[in-house]
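A quick aside before the break. I want you to see a complete sequence-to-structure record at least once, exactly as it would be stored in a machine-readable document. Don't worry about memorizing anything.
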Amino acid sequence: MLKVVNTSKAPAAIGPYSQGIILKNILFSSGQIPASPETGKIVGTDITAQAEQVMENVKAILDEAGTCFENVVKTTCFLNDMADFAEFNKVYEKYFVSKPARSCVAVKALPKNVLCEVEVIAEIQ
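That is the input. The structure line, written in tokens, reads:
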């Protein structure tokens, strides 16, 4: 049975999808962009500020699902510009200290023209 993850501490979905889905003891999160959970407006204009907000949004979904960054087994990171890779990594490594498997790709565009988006798969213990 699937369980929908929904929290007001992360931005509401901007389309026909859930913030996350739990299947047995695994969380699959939707991609998180640097939107404020309170206003829906984009936080920050540079990669560092936007990545920090993304990680806080990911944290809110992990918390709601009953897990944490240490239980993340896979991330997929989307960058608007691969030139931001090093600065993005500085923020990323503060949160994902367990070094989960990761894919990181540059894309042509992201929702609301943000600079980054992150989705995770995590174990719920």
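Two observations worth writing down. The beta strands are 2-5, 20-23, 26-29, 72-79, 101-106, 116-123. The chain has a mean pLDDT of 97. We'll return to this after the break.
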